[in-house]
Inverse folding.
């Protein structure tokens, strides 16, 4: 690759020198010129040729976005990267609207300079390709000025008349593979329907500029998530077609999904913590009242046990929030001991517990006690307190069954959903926690009907100690 000349503007000359040194050590022919303010930067641009401008945001007199606006008035297509320690969605949004090519937040460590170098090279590569396309294909000059990653022109039947070389990187195809192909043939049925409606509506109404999201079949059999903007230019003598500017948003979609899942998980964890802490709080409060009435210090031991349980739950649930349902540390535990301990937290005087048999198996004792407590509370809550809960084992698992009203077959899958409850006093998170922890152990859980007509929860996949 030929030399890349970079203008770096930062009001901290020491940091500017550091950036220049790192860039020139990246193994690419970088030629970096540094200045300390926007005015000096414009003077450099007026007197010399540069392939890319990199600027800080917070600078005296004119900040990075104001500097970008000045640059855009004279050099509308020159790559401009905002490299700043002040990061926020508001600044990023404003930066894009002001014409910034890319936005990178300063961080500690040498790796940030490698990332910056890659961003510069990508921006310069795209800029040079755009300029080359302008020179070699005049008929597409209007497209290249405002190009996205992929530029395509299709006829009235949505067949490609032209597609830019970026299709190889973004979609996985060479240009010649897509010419004369119908774009809709590469979309799944649901996406194809929406895309066709938008396309033919824009054919009939040239003033429309639809923006759609769809999946495009990749040669390896997967799907590329694409965002595309369309423009009817059949009346343009140079274009004579429907112009599509498209970009690969697969990583963006994945990131959005991850953030949505994380936000949902954090929301649920907050409610889950409240749910699981309710029992030990009630136990501690109840035994404290008994102690005040009787001065029997044995009740204080019960209070201590409940408080210890609360601390353990807090630690473990915060760990669960970080690691999802993954179970890292297990040990041999006794079913009877865990069930008895859970009954102290969840049991009531009206309800009865029966442990048919007890076997040892490998599990996280704290997490598994959460499972037991939640299953016991579920039985007691839906049985109005006056219920018998029986716990025992099968050849491959553990069952919990009760004499309550049972669970309708149509609701048996839904009860595991976060927030789903049929009780006015319920939170809808207890059974969701149960399923998460069960799956985290590598087990399965199913619901059926007990012999008494109540609910039967059966955990399978448990390996018992011989």
């Amino acid at each position: 690759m030929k030399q890349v000349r970079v203008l770096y503007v930062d009001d901290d000359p020491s940091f500017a020198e550091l950036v220049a040194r790192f860039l020139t050590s990246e193994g690419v022919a970088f030629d970096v010129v540094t200045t300390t303010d926007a005015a000096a930067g414009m003077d450099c641009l007026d007197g010399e040729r540069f392939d890319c401008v990199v600027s800080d945001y917070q600078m005296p007199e004119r900040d990075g976005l104001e500097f970008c606006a000045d640059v855009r008035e004279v050099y509308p297509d020159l790559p401009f990267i905002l490299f700043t320690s002040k990061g926020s969605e508001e600044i990023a949004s404003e930066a894009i609207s002001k014409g910034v090519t890319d936005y990178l937040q300063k961080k500690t460590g040498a790796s940030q300079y490698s990332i910056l170098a890659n961003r510069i090279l990508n921006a310069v590569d795209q800029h040079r390709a755009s300029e080359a396309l302008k020179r070699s294909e005049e008929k597409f000059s209007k497209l290249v000025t405002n190009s996205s990653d992929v530029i395509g022109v299709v006829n009235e039947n949505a067949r490609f008349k032209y597609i830019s070389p970026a299709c190889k990187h973004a979609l996985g195809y060479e240009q010649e593979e897509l010419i004369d192909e119908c774009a809709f043939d590469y979309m799944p049925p649901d996406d194809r329907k929406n895309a066709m409606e938008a396309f033919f509506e824009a054919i009939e109404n040239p003033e429309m500029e639809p923006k759609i999201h769809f999946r495009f079949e990749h040669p390896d059999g997967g799907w590329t998530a694409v965002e595309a903007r369309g423009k009817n230019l059949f009346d343009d003598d140079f274009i004579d077609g429907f112009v599509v500017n498209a970009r690969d948003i697969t990583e963006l979609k994945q990131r959005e999904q991850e953030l949505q899942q994380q936000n949902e998980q954090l929301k649920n964890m907050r409610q889950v913590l409240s749910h699981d802490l309710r029992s030990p709080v009630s136990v501690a409060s109840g035994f404290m009242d008994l102690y005040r009435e009787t001065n029997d210090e044995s009740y204080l031991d019960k209070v201590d046990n409940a408080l210890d349980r609360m601390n353990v739950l807090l630690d473990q649930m915060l760990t669960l929030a970080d690691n999802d349902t993954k179970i890292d540390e297990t040990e041999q535990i006794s079913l009877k001991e865990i069930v008895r301990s859970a009954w102290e937290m969840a049991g009531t005087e009206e309800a009865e517990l029966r442990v048919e048999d007890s076997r040892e198996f490998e599990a996280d004792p704290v997490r598994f006690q959460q499972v037991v407590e939640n299953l016991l509370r579920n039985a007691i809550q839906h049985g109005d307190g006056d219920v018998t809960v029986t716990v025992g084992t099968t050849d491959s698992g553990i069952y919990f069954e009760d004499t309550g009203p049972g669970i309708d077959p149509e609701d048996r899958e839904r009860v595991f959903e976060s927030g789903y409850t049929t009780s006015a006093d319920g939170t809808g998170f207890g059974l969701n926690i149960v399923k998460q922890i069960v799956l985290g152990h590598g087990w399965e859980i199913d619901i059926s009907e007990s012999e008494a007509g109540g609910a039967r929860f059966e955990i399978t996949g448990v390996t018992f100690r011989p």
About this structure: The two ends are 67 Å apart (CA to CA). Residues 140-146 have pLDDT under 50 and may be disordered. The first helix runs from residue 13 to 24.
